[in-house]
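Hi P.,

Sorry for the delay on this. The queue was packed all week, but I finally got your sequence through. Input first:
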Amino acid sequence: MLKPTNASPFVTVVGVIGNTRNDGLRNEPRPVALVPYPLLAPGQRLVAVRSHGDPKALINPLREIVRSMDKEQPLGRPSTIDEALGFQTVQPRFTMVLFSLFAVLGLILAAAGIHSVLSYAVTRRTHEIGVRMALGARRADVLRLVFKAGARLVGPGVGIGLLASLGAARLLGSQIELFRVPAADPLAFLGVILVLGGVAAAACGIPARRAAATDPIKALRYE
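Then the structure:
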């Protein structure tokens, strides 16, 4: 730091500004005192320019202005505020995309698993379904029977998944809250439950319709 030899130890506070993230996007603002360059100056200077158009169009004119003031003054690599913010968010974005891909893959596997298990269960209970229909069970009763079997599979899974999600949200809180999203957002969890419920209902639909369309006579003869 460059400091004049005859500098006074006292300064006058001329204003107070609001909180601004000055330690990256993930950390809370830190207390900072801004002083004029003649009192205390860093070895390197950073010039911030606000533009109303394309900021990159001002790079060459700014370089020419600096060179006209001092030809031997070294210039660093210029960057825009969007590039600086993008550099800080590229890793969290990649992490979120990666987890999203795994979530979609898990959702597909869950739907395929529910469909396979219910299809197998309906096949094993074909004779039972035929007996129920022969005794007066309606189509709605058979559909309800299959969907209840699906709910017994999905319900515990959703409960365990919510507990695991709350634990994972605490571990990834700094990554999630970087995008101004609370780690334990009730709307997000409700949306996930609705999506999983819809996928489970769709996975139960085909076996349920097949069971409801069972011919009682053929089912009673089924071995």
